[in-house]
């Protein structure tokens, strides 16, 4: 284990990985417990507050789902693409017409 390895000694021994936002059980030292709780709280704030990262992960999940859908049902995927293109084209047409008036 190197200093850049995010896994702790407890994870390596027990074989179960705790999320970064969890406080490991079995800490008896109050100072170590407080540090672990602070570390977990800061990690939770980072996870919840990092919107660009959350958006990127959600978009990656959406891309994977869309590709899976396209592989399983290419005809429906082509229809969905055509429907979205027609909807966007219609929206652009309505906006352009409203601006022109």
UniProtKB/TrEMBL annotation:
Keyword Transmembrane helix belongs to the record: yes
Entry's transmembrane regions: 75-96
Keyword Transmembrane: yes
The entry's keywords: Membrane, Transmembrane, Transmembrane helix
Protein name in the entry: DUF3618 domain-containing protein
Source organism (scientific name): Microbacterium esteraromaticum
């Amino acid at each position: 284990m190197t200093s850049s390895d995010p896994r702790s000694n407890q994870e390596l021994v027990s074989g179960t990985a705790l999320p970064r936002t969890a406080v490991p059980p079995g800490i008896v030292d109050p100072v170590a417990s407080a540090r672990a709780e602070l570390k977990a709280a800061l990690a939770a704030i980072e996870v919840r507050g990092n919107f660009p990262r959350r958006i990127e992960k959600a978009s990656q999940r959406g891309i994977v789902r869309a590709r899976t859908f396209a592989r399983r049902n290419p005809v429906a995927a082509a229809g969905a693409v055509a429907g979205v293109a027609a909807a966007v084209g219609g929206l652009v047409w309505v906006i352009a017409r409203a601006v022109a008036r």
